Amino acid sequence: MKIAICVKHDLAGSLALNRLVRTLAGRHEIHVILSDHVLKAERENPLASCLLEHERDMPLECIFPWLDEQFPLGCPDACQTVAGLAATYGISVELWGRARTPQAVANMQLLAPDLIISCRYDYIFPDKIIRIPRLGAYGLHPGVLPQIQGLCGPFRAMQMRHAHAGCSLFHIDEGIDSGAVVDVGWNNIDYSRSLLWNFVGTYFAGIDVLSRHLPILERDERLPGTVQKASERQYFCYPSEDEFRQFLRADGALVNLRDYLELLSLYLPKGMQDERMKELTMLVTSGSC
To answer: Is the pTM of this model over 0.85?
Structure first.
């Protein structure tokens, strides 16, 4: 199959992309389309800005370039930056911008993928793109649908003190997280860990579900889905500053150093024991990023 993976260019998106590529590479032709859109709400208050700094700004401006210096030819023994994945697996990586532009539609028509997988992608696809792949367009949404639609699903699951956060594999339509649900992957929420840590684990659970359904797609069959019940739908906007503060007062953490370094260590061949870990820690803690 020719597969277009549409994913956000940030830390959680990168880690999810690594798991997707490792699942699909060598068996299918992969093309990666990145998005890099920042919501106004993500910079509106200090807590949102702190989360964004760790999710996006620090990785893109400092950590990923440092990793590319360490591994200019890629590093197949660990997670990799998009440049590393391109070097290791020979896949194309492009940044297209908004999906509804005529150029983005033309690009996807030219690519003509058999399958589209959208994971943490910023944009809603127009019908002209949705109709292109013969095996369908599928999203991985970090929330159980239809009960947690919208933004920052793992935050809502933790806010409501759920035991698990669901990542829904669903058919993409022109709505927002509204297509038929194929299946849900469940991540056990660890309340001793940060929101960012649980966010990444939730995406991993969704990718594991996709992997289980992959043989159906490889038989040239579309995945079956169950139409969402409109009466159960609940859409959530990006959390407000008050909601973030309530989360912290309930002993939650948006991000902490331990979790952050452990996530970053996934990019090193020997993880937390890698000799480069000391320098990476200094980049994070010294303000060099």
So the answer is: yes
